[in-house]
Amino acid sequence: MKIIVTGGAGFIGGNFVHYMLEKYPDYRIICVDCLTYAGNLETLNSAMDNPNFCFHKVDITDREAVFSVFKEERPDIVVNFAAESHVDRSIENPDVFLKTNILGTQVMMDACRKYGIRRYHQVSTDEVYGDLPLDRPDLFFTETTPIHTSSPYSASKASADLLVQAYHKTFGLPVTISRCSNNYGPYHFPEKLIPLMIANALNNKPLPVYGKGENIRDWLYVEDHCRAIDLIIHKGTVGEIYNIGGHNEMKNIDIVKIICRELNKPESLITFVTDRKGHDMRYAIDPAKIRNELGWLPETKFADGIQKTIKWYLDNRPWWEHIINGEYRQYYERMYLNR
Ligand code: NAD
Ligand code: TYD
């Protein structure tokens, strides 16, 4: 089996590459990634020596380059993780989000049509559903919840998600789609809530909480997401959408306090800063479909997952220190200095 994994130098794609190489030693895993600021070859260090792994530095919006990878590799399955993924950056500049997330998805599917494919899997997000009110804890996103987006990021992901459905209906492309909640774990880029707070706390820097920190996200350990995608590409039904989430809703402020406690840092580091524009209040997934149809259940409890994650950041300081010493520092100063 040959699998193209786009965005494999990023957070979830990188975890997926390692997961697949370990679980299926006879599969060939082909990573396609153009190494944006969020892509990091250090994430793939241990895979590089594996003869069943190869890396193509290719932009998924570059039709010619993508087609030539398909011609050379003839993949059976494509899992499309590649995307611009940070909501705050999409508010600063939506352009690249529309290009990569929508047009890149189109190019990948056109290549699948031309060269033939057993499965195209689109890694979508729960953010396509918009948000839920804080005072209705009984409400959850199901696969039939209408799409209703808030940020340029979520709008671009929703556009791609709809395009994937259109390619299935119009051209018969054998697709599946997953819409997962917020992930956390190793190799998470330190601009996102959990790794940013861990890195800042370790450096005794302020912990910038947007608004009052009351917003709720439904956190899933990244390996559980990888296992869900593995199940969907092998056993999921073509044309279907699967929500992935672990019923682990937490307020942002509570997460930041847990990180302070685990690292033995004072809560006085917490600073409340100007809220994100259009900030979604609550995300909450109903994962009944994937549980009932594919038998998927999350395995890592948040209490264990956050400890493993913190330990990983303590044990792998060079990985994130290289990032925060580079281009990212300018972004950080622009976003947070006068906030
Ligand atoms: P990430 O930002 O960490 O990684 C994205 C990767 O894609 C990087 O390696 C980057 O270099 C690559 N990339 C970006 N543009 C590219 C292009 N034009 N061509 C080739 N490669 C390109 O993102 P992530 O958090 O790992 O998210 C992966 C996917 O999962 C995304 O599609 C995201 O929408 C989705 N998702 C993420 C979460 C989450 O909590 N992080 C939750 C649900 C869904
Ligand atoms: P983030 O990790 O950017 O994921 P998403 O916006 O895709 O859910 O943010 C998670 C939550 O944390 C979100 O409600 C915004 C909030 N947040 C902060 O309060 N401070 C920060 O510095 C960041 C990056 C996020």
Ligands in the structure? nicotinamide-adenine-dinucleotide, thymidine-5'-diphosphate
Give a short account of the largest sheet: 7 strands, parallel
What would CATH call the architecture?
A: 3-Layer(aba) Sandwich
CATH topology: Rossmann fold
Ends: how far apart?
49 Å
CATH homologous superfamily placement:
NAD(P)-binding Rossmann-like Domain
Question: What would your notes on this structure say?
Answer:
Helix 1 links the parallel strand 1 and strand 2. The longest helix is centred in the first third of the chain and has 21 residues. The termini are far apart. The chain has a single domain, classed as Rossmann fold (3-Layer(aba) Sandwich), CATH 3.40.50.720. The strands form four sheets. Strands 3-2-1-4-5-6-11 form a seven-stranded parallel beta sheet, sandwiched between helices. The protein has a two-stranded parallel sheet with strand order 7-10. By secondary structure, the chain is α/β, with parallel strands linked by helices. 43% of the residues lie in helices and 16% in strands. The chain is globular. It binds nicotinamide-adenine-dinucleotide and thymidine-5'-diphosphate. The site of nicotinamide-adenine-dinucleotide has 30 residues, from helix 1, helix 4 and strand 5. Nicotinamide-adenine-dinucleotide binds next to helix 1, helix 4 and strand 5.
